[in-house]
Amino acid sequence: MGAKRLRITSTLIALATSASVLTGLGAGTARAATPACASDGCWTAPFSPFGMFNARPPQTTAESRLFPAAASLVMMPNGRIVYWNGLQGAENCGQVTLIVNLGACGQNAHSEILDLTKKSPSFEMVPTNSGHSDLFCSDQRLLENGTVLDTGGTYYSTEEPKGGTGVDGAAGLVEVWGSKDTRLFSPTTKRWTVYTNAMHEGRWYPSLLTLPSGDQFVAGGVRKLLWNSSIMTQAEGAIGNPQYQQASAPVPENIQTNEIWKIDGTGWTLNPAKDNVELPLYGRLHLLPDGEIFYSGNGQMWGPAGESVNEVDWNNMKLFDPSKIGTSQDQGWQNAGMLQLGAMSGASSTLMPFDLRKKDALTNVHILVAGGVVGVSPDSLLATNMSQLITLTKTASSWSTSVALTTGQLNSRRWFSSSVLLPSGQVVVFNGADKDEVIEPGLERPVQQTELYDPTSQTWTPLAESGRGRTYHNTAILLPDGSVLVGGHAPLNQLNGGQGNSLPLDQLGFSHNLKDPSFERFYPPYLYAGPRPSILSSQKHATWGGTLEVQKDPNSPASIDHFVLSRLPAQTHITDADARTIILNGTDQGSSIKLSIPKNRALITPGFYYLFAMSKKGVPSQATIVQIADKKFFQGSGPATPVDLAQQGYRSASDNVKAAQLPVGLAKAAKKAASSQPVSAAAKIPLATEVVAQASKPIAPARATQPWLIVLTALMGAILVRRIRILARR
């Protein structure tokens, strides 16, 4: 490259960097006034173990190391939540760039149990016991027998080319390997069991999905990430270990094989080569009501040097029928159209409800794709506000697909936002950033604006803002009282440099550079649309073709219009392939209602579900947790009663919500929480702790409206441009 061309290019890069910084000025500022809960919903104050980070997120690496951030979480049948960390080892890497140091300092993720069924939220650390590989970047499902299956994940190492680097003291570069390990977590014993080398492929960022049989289907991922090829051939601590196979080709490719794990415990079976498919990382998969698997043209498309030479094919949505595996009718994966602009990276993908009151419930399926960035690696960097609705229509032989923009687009541009389908059929999205953080870590602005999608009008309504910015590795799941638990935030280090806030970028409106172990709860507007119905109990379990009996509450404040089954969430990296909601019909028979469970196992996949009673205005009851499974897996006896959760007060604001606007039973809790004192940290952290969520307003970082920050940013940009141009002339 000539000197003149280099000067021009370097100047443009510097200016673009400065512009990116300046776009964050004033970002994330709170609304002037918090609206009423009935129109915008309401948030609790952040809560965390010991209350240590209720007021603000960790400010030092030592603080960030204390507790896990919820990068992955699973709601268990007992109403408790097991979750684990993301980028756990980053705090141990100090100020040395992760690119060269993470292989030596990376550590396994911590796991913890959150219990919201007590008087106040409590946290219990559990032994991770994830083997020599990390839970981070695995995928997990809740099985029909009540255990949590987790597979794949991360092994950190330092890798060098064959023959060494040729430089004394230079061991090589960090490498992230996909693990072959499979793990089971028992909600009863609170312990992990590890099956080493269980899968045929070591998978990092795989996609896991429950089949109608209860077996687990896994596809995608990479054997190794940063050098996703066989060019680098030596890995410290991994040579000769079948757990970490070298990539098989000199060019980067994602894993193309897929496997099935048997519910009977016999392990993983590799599917025939004709069923191979290459997907992006965490390719968004959904199971259709006829048992076919659908890939929605969405996933994590990024890669340090281009994730795969075959990545152009990720633009194609795809269909696959796993029931045909091993038969003459097996046609492998078939292309099924494209999204409006092709592949989306970091967009949410929500399977809309199956309403069995409608004749076309199983032949007219909708999937909502919202936000993300456009294109395969390297993508477009800036997040979009696109909202797309995929419609799949069942024909005599297959599915036809169409894609259209929804009537209204998102109000905020957002990448990596978590979506939650409410039992009312509405969708709420939380968290995320205004650009792809992986490409430009540390220069993304958190999106704290919550938004609600109305499927009737196909429009998005802005709701109340969250108290914390949660960009990368955030989570949001539906709770049995109809509220939503929001957590996570484990960002990449600023510009892939050392850990910690070496620059005050969060004061400029950018993402906080340390993990956040806190949670918040959001009460959507539908909880204030009228009185909520109540039920006394339901059967604990049922099977396909049978009935599920519900005992009515004779003193219910609202009549019951219908019932909803919503599968217990198991989310990581904003994905939950098993998520599905089914609207049931019910026959009113005096004091009890009998619900017919369809025979279709692809519609109601084997597992555990919330059972909500819904009013005509779409207000849910407190849910029971029921097991729809094969009888040999039925757990427990007696009825299932509604799950009672800890009642938490709202975050204080300039226009506090009146007590009369709180859901029933929350008014007293809000008053009590508002007067509670912070829980101090003990010198030694026990395995189980309890903490009361305070209703105090989180400490907000200084905003970029301060003149000195604007001047400093402009000065930094000018110095950067001048230095690069001087270097270019040499």
Explain this structure to me?
The chain has six helices and 46 strands. It is mainly beta and 730 residues long. The strands form ten sheets. It has a six-stranded antiparallel beta sheet, with no helix packed on it. Helix 1 runs antiparallel to helix 6. It starts with a helix and ends with a helix.
SSE topology:
Blueprint: H1 3-22, H2 37-40, E1 42-43, H3 61-64, E2 72-75, E3 81-84, H4 98-105, E4 111-115, E5 122-126, E6 134-142, E7 148-160, E8 173-178, E9 182-186, E10 191-195, E11 207-210, E12 216-219, E13 234-235, E14 258-262, E15 267-270, E16 285-287, E17 293-295, E18 298-299, E19 316-320, E20 334-338, E21 344-345, E22 348-351, E23 354-355, E24 364-370, E25 373-374, E26 387-394, E27 399-405, E28 418-421, E29 427-430, E30 449-454, E31 459-465, E32 474-478, E33 484-488, E34 519-523, E35 535-539, E36 541-542, E37 547-552, E38 562-567, E39 570-572, E40 581-584, E41 586-589, E42 592-596, E43 607-614, E44 624-628, E45 639-640, H5 666-674, E46 688-690, H6 707-729
Parallel strand pairs: 18-21, 23-40, 36-44
Antiparallel strand pairs: 1-34, 2-3, 2-39, 3-4, 4-5, 5-46, 6-7, 7-8, 7-9, 7-13, 9-10, 11-12, 12-14, 14-15, 16-17, 17-19, 19-20, 21-25, 22-24, 24-26, 26-27, 28-29, 29-30, 30-31, 32-33, 33-34, 35-37, 35-45, 37-42, 38-40, 38-43, 41-42, 43-44
